[in-house]
Design a protein that fits this description.
alpha+beta, three-stranded mixed sheet, 24% strand, Pop1
Length: 289
């Protein structure tokens, strides 16, 4: 009985993968996707997870405080060099339609008494980003929704404009509900349902990893075709995966799209911020067909 028990334990232990197998790219991506089911990771999550205490808020996994004493280094970077912050967890709503119709309806949820509005000339041209407080339609100064920042896409000669509104994830649902009511946007008939995320066990059943000496590993599915690599989760913690991402108004033609986690956002602070951007970003050459 002892001998049979020992053999049985060896069989159970053999099922456990070694660290080299667990650290393979396909296994890592599947494991990361599984861990993002409840809280979405930012693009810089791995970098922050090694250096920060992480907290789970608003459907995201965010870096809260550093694990070492780096406050002086951050302050020195802000005052003399450049400090970068990842604000990709902020939600982005995109409004597309005729400029006159956009300004007409947006004027109902803000007031000139509080400062700048969506009609400000410097912001309307697309050169500068604006910030203001949004209220429920025709309810100023009561029922404030919260602060937002916005930026217009520069004019391209047509009467249709594009507006991006950025807000905190805690305010997104209320503002989205109010914008859909103001522009009279209806729910689409077809709702996009994303493909289910495969776990590590399911990945092993679906993908056959063929090992050969001196050759790279090839991934093949049951039909013998090359399997599609596991994709990273696209979405955000404030959006139901079974809800639509875009709404259109049948009367005005205004389209509201949810661009959260599709447009990344970073904040650079410090006197050398422009120098860093100049060295990092290179202008693309214009090609005319």
């Amino acid at each position: 009985k002892q001998a049979e028990k020992a053999v049985h334990q060896k069989k159970e232990q053999s099922k456990t993968k070694c660290r080299k197998a667990r650290r393979r790219h396909i296994n890592l991506v599947a494991e990361f996707n599984r861990r993002q089911r409840k809280n979405i990771w930012l693009e810089t999550h791995i970098w922050h997870a090694k250096r920060f205490h992480m907290v789970k808020k608003w459907g995201y996994c965010l870096g809260d405080s550093p694990t070492e004493k780096s406050y002086r280094a951050c302050y020195r970077a802000m005052t003399k060099h450049c400090l970068l912050q990842d604000l990709s967890y902020y939600c982005c709503l995109e409004l597309t339609g005729k400029e006159n119709e956009l300004l007409k309806q947006l004027a109902r949820i803000c007031s000139i008494d509080t400062g700048l509005t969506f009609e400000e000339a410097c912001c309307l041209s697309g050169r500068f980003e604006g910030s203001l407080n949004l209220y429920r339609a025709d309810r100023y100064p009561e029922d404030m929704l919260g602060p937002i920042t916005f930026i217009w896409k520069p004019r391209d000669g047509s009467e249709n404009r594009q507006l991006w509104i950025w807000m905190h994830p805690a305010l997104k649902q209320d503002m989205l509900r109010e914008l859909k009511a103001v522009f009279q946007c209806s729910e689409p008939e077809e709702i996009y349902i994303p493909e289910p995320i495969t776990t590590t066990i399911q990945e092993e059943k679906q993908v056959d990893v063929v090992l050969s000496l001196g050759k790279k590993r090839k991934k093949e599915d049951k039909e013998g075709e090359k399997a599609v690599p596991v994709k990273k989760i696209i979405g955000d913690g404030t959006r139901d995966p079974f809800q639509s991402y875009s709404w259109i108004s049948q009367t005005t033609g205004i389209v509201i799209s949810d661009r959260t986690m599709e447009i990344l956002r970073y904040r650079l602070i410090g006197p050398l911020s422009h120098s860093v951007l100049t060295e990092t970003l290179k202008a693309a050459s214009l090609q005319t067909v």
